[in-house]
Amino acid sequence: MKxxxxxxxxxxxxxxxxxxxxxxxxxxxxxxxxxxxxxQAVRVIPLEKMAVVPRVISYGYVEADRTxxxxxEVSGKIVSVNENLKKGxxxxxxxxxxxxxxxxYGLAESRGEAExxxxxxxxxxxxxxxxxxxxxxxxxxxxxxxxxxxxRRKRELFKNGYISTSDLEKEERTFLGHQTTxxxxxxxxxxxxxxxxxxxxxxxSGESTVTERKLDVARTEIRAPFDCxxxxxxxxxxxFAAAGTVLVEAESIDSAEIPVSLTPKxxxxxxPRDHRASIDQMLDMETIRRAIGITxxxxxxxxxxxxxxxxxxxxxxxxxxxxxxxxLTIYITVDKPYENVIxxxxxxxxxxxxxxxxxxxxSLSERFVVPRSAxxxxxxxICTSENRLEIRPVKVEFYMGNVAVLSQGLEVGQRxxxxxxxxxxxxxxxxxxxAKEVVASxxxxxxxxxx
Length: 451
Description:
Elements: H1 2-26, E1 40-46, E2 49-52, E3 55-61, E4 63-64, E5 67-71, E6 76-81, E7 90-91, E8 96-100, H2 103-159, H3 165-219, E9 221-223, E10 228-233, E11 240-241, E12 246-252, E13 255-262, H4 264-270, H5 279-282, H6 285-292, E14 295-299, E15 309-317, E16 328-335, E17 354-360, E18 364-371, E19 379-383, E20 389-393, E21 395-400, E22 403-408, E23 415-417, E24 430-434, H7 436-447
Parallel strand pairs: 1-24
Antiparallel strand pairs: 1-23, 2-18, 3-17, 4-13, 5-12, 6-8, 6-11, 7-10, 8-9, 10-12, 13-16, 14-15, 14-17, 15-16, 18-22, 19-20, 19-23, 21-22
């Protein structure tokens, strides 16, 4: 029994020593690996020049191009209201919206016309009085001349003692009476022009009053100044309308505006590079629009099968920059926003609608367009003809969405590395794989046109 226990201990030990001896005799020396250069697989695209249409995407709310407030210029009771005088209804130009009672203004007009008739009658009376006075003055002048001759004759008789003093004095009184009458008639005739002027002034004032009363009567009838859509209604039938009260508000339907904010850098990327204009020319807004040449497309930012969009035009810029954001506001105009409406598919471009605005500048030729991710600060990675990495400094003209437009630093035919190498070591060995789909995408993004 003891011998068996010893064997159980000795046999495993002997086997272990034998296995170790065999392994030691059969071991091989370590294999020396060759020092090979690491190869980095990268996606590349061939560089080529292409036309670029500068584009900027912004968002804004639709506003009416023109708004109108119907402010009552006269006071009175509303006696008639248009059956379509409700929010949201469309009103044609010159269509009557409501009428104010004209009774008091009509009576005032009648009183004014009666006063004018009275003045006209007094003018005719004054003219007849002038004619009568002129005739009387002519007669009195003849009587005065006769009285003067008689007075001279009586004085001769008195001098020779043929008449008494009382007869001479009587004749002198007769002469003075005729002279006084002539003077009074002349004075009356001299006053007639000033009296006529006063009556003419009174007539002119009366005519102005009548005209004002007629205007008041016309102001009781409120009409739409242009084709519009009603937005605010503050008037009811038989309601009293006080002068100066806003009764109706409406918005034009012939055009709409969208103010959008752009950073100065984004706005400058849309401007042409070769236009020059004098200060005098640039003061004209139409010249500014032609010089800038910005076009716009307005879209509803909705996930629909077919895009809902409108053609827009650059209208103007704001007069100043925003103090808080430093942004510049530009206004895009859309003509006929209520045309081509398809219920359930294409709504009209209504006020306060939130929209996307794509702004396009004039096409730029001979530009390198690369993915934005391929630009590393101020450099790009180039795969040389020896498949080595070259870090090439470039000048970025502007960024546009997911692409960058480069103006300097590259040559046609060079291969641009799309990968962001970590680390990027000048001269490292590359394994280029051409990404053809990226080239097609860049061309589409450069012009903004889809197939």
